[in-house]
Each structure stands twice: as C-alpha cells, then as structure tokens.
Amino acid sequence: EQIKKGNYDHFMQKEIHEQPHSLTTTMRGRLKDNSVVLGGLKDHLKTIRHSRRIIFIGCGTSYNAALAARPFLEELSGIPVTMELASDLLDRQGPIYREDTAVFVSQSGETADTLLALEYALGNGALCVGVTNTVGSTLARRTHCGVHINAGCEIGVASTKAYTSQIVVMAMMALAIGADKISTQARREAIINGLSDLPKKVAEVLKLDGEMRDLAKSLIDTQSLLVFGRGYNYATALEGALKVKEVALMHSEGMLAGEMKHGPLALVDETLPIIVIATHDACFSKQQSVIQQLHARKGRLIVMCSEGDATSVCPMGSCRVIEVPQVADCLQPVINIIPMQLLAYHLTVLRGYDVDQPRNLAKSVTTE
Ligand code: G6P
Fold first, then answer.
1. 64, 103, 111: which to mutate for ligand 1, most atoms within 8 A of CB?
2. Following DSSP, what letter does each residue of 235-274 receive, concatenated?
3. Relative to the CA of 14, which of 78, 105, 177, 340 has its CA 20 to 30 Å away?
4. Residue 157 C-alpha to ligand 1 middle, in angstroms?
C-alpha cells in the first residue's frame, strides 16, 4: 500500500496532487486543431443536438461535477439542461421522454441509484450517455454511448481527481455538441486554449498547499463552515463543503450566494467562518456586493479571488484572501475546487480523522 502512495501520506493527498497529470490524461488525444474529438460520442452527436433537453443524473461529487458543467453546456449547446440527483428522480419517477438525452455521471460506474435511474431512463426511451472513470463498469456497458474520464484509479473515498476530470470531460462534450454553431466559434477556441493550459494552472494552484494548511489550523476547532458561490462556482461551493463534511467530519454547507438573503444571512456573526468564492467572471460584482454585506454584519470572511484582485474583494483588509490563478471563466471551477480539497485534507489530518476511509462512508454505494 505504501508503494502505491509513493511519497504521500494518504491516497487523498496523492490524488489531489496528481491532478496536473490526471487532467492531461483525460484530454490526451481528444483536443485537435481547435476542435474536440470524442470517439465514444461522435455517432450520437446529431441525436444529442436534436434532443429537447439534456438531463444530468448522478450522486454526490459526480452530481456536483455535472452542476459545474451545466452553465457551459447550456451556453454552447443552446439546449435546456436540467439536474437530477439519481435517488430523487427515482423517488419522484420524474418524467423522461424519448426526445431527452440523459447523461449519467459516475466515477465508479456502479452506484446503485445511478444505475437504477439509468434503467428507468432506458425504459422511457431516452438516449443514455455515460461519463465514468471505470472501463467495463455497468454504467459503461448499459449506456448507448459515452466518454471515459481516464483519471486513473481513485482510492480515497472522497473523490478529488475524478471531479476535475469529470468537469473537463463535460467541457469537451459541450464543445463537441456545440461544434456546429458558427456564432460561438471564438468562444469555443478560447475554451480549447484554456483546456490546454489547465494542467499548468492546476500545478500552480497546488502551491497553495502550505497556505491551506495554515487556514486549516485556524479552523480546526470551529463547529461549522459556510461556502458561498454562484454561476460557474455554485458547484464549487457545494463540492467544497461536501469535501469538508465527508472527510474532516465538520458541519459545512455550500450555498448559492444569490439565496444569501433568504435565510443564511441570519447565521452570520463574528465566529462562523464563511468562504466566499469571488473569482473573476460575469458574477464578480454581485459577489463583491455579497462580501460587503457579510462584512457589514461582521462576518468572519475568507475570500477566494483571482490573482491580483485581493484589494478589490477585500478593500478593508479585514478578510483572509486566497488568490488563485485565473483561467477561462467556465473552467475556473477546476482551479477553485483545489484549495477546498487541500483545506479538507489538512483539516482532517489536523483533527486526527481517517482521511482515506471516513467513518460510515463507502467509495461506491452499491445498495439503494
Ligand atoms: C459515494 C462516494 C462519493 C461519490 C458518490 C458517487 O458517496 O463516497 O465520493 O461521489 O458515491 O459515486 P460515483 O462512483 O457514482 O461517482
């Protein structure tokens, strides 16, 4: 086991630091001269382009990855994209039609609820697409077509490198689905350039390891942590909070910043730490205003912003700032989750919990 961990103490730590490599493997052979080639999808692109809606279905981190992909899939395809937690879809027996494309996202390809939802969608005649890390898994075999994320074996129960590879695969899917649109060609080219640069930027953001360990030290005894995000980074808030919850065993909630005034604001005081994700994108000024409102209520703020933005997000110098490299806006969730993964990892070690096998959790949940 120690050999597989290499120079790392835990699999989760190794898998976090492996991401420049796992993302390179995910993209290998798939980005060609300003276009994307996904062998597993190419015969079905026409059907997907004509579908009435795209439904993302998954559980846990895989659901969050799909949520991160939703805005750019909508933007590049022009097709409405809806989200389903697999268990909730099954509980409701929600309507799915022949004109729908259902995209199932699962690292293991064996999660019971996701597979049951797949059988349900197949029964309703939808085109079923799989996004999985596991070649030969039930998900890979039962879907009509799909894309392997090729992130390499993930052992830590808390998913890290699979999350970023899932987002990158869905970005490539969005580029392939939208490839027939002249109007978005420049945007697509910018995203493809952003994808090529991503492993290098991920290596840069990993240098925040020491800083995130220091932040973890300052949070070690807190009861609770809130994470506010919006737009491309709503998913980052949910996934960052999920990481802290599942491994550091600390109560943590990811919230849509746009909902702040509808309840969460009541929780704000000088003790509760709040992470606000405010990297540069179309929602930046709205996040600045969220920071001001939290500041006015004396919130204990930690702000994640783009490099060079520290003074504009925190003019009073009263919050702790995490500066991350800026990439194409829709790929920013891949960068922004990494400090959160590092924070969850260090909090877990400092609090003395089992990093790779959190209590009560399983890597793959194969029962309903
Ligand atoms: C379990 C794991 C999570 C994972 C979820 C979905 O809860 O602990 O890390 O995100 O299952 O798993 P899947 O293999 O379908 O992505």
1. 111
2. HHHHHHHHHHHHHH--EEEEEEGGGGGGTGGGG--SSSEE
3. 105
4. 8
> pLDDT digit string (tens) for 105-124?
999 999 999 999 999 999 99
Indicate the Cα dihedral angle 321, 324, 327, 332, nearest 10°: -70
How many CB atoms neighbour CB 188 within 10 A? 19
Q: What are phi and psi of 99, to 5 degrees?
A: -80, 0
Question: Which is the closest atom of ligand 1 to the Cα of 159?
Answer: 9
Residue nearest to atom 11 of ligand 1 (CA): 364
Q: Ligand 1 site: residues with CB under 6 angstroms?
A: 59-62, 106-108, 111, 114, 157-159, 361, 363-365
Atom number, ligand 1, closest to the C-alpha of residue 108: 14
- Sign of the alpha-carbon dihedral angle for 226, 202, 32, 134: negative
Question: Going by DSSP bridges, is the β-strand pair 145-148/127-132 parallel, antiparallel, or unpaired?
Answer: parallel
pLDDT at 287: 96
pLDDT of 3: 61
Q: How far is the CA of 277 from the centre of ligand 1 (A)?
A: 24
Q: Which two tokens stand for residue 84?
A: 């389903």
Computed from CA positions of residues 137, 138, 142, 146, in that sequence, does the dihedral angle turn out positive or negative?
negative
CA 289 from chain centre, in angstroms, equals 24
What distance in Å separates the CA atoms of residue 228 and residue 235, rounded to the nearest whole number?
10
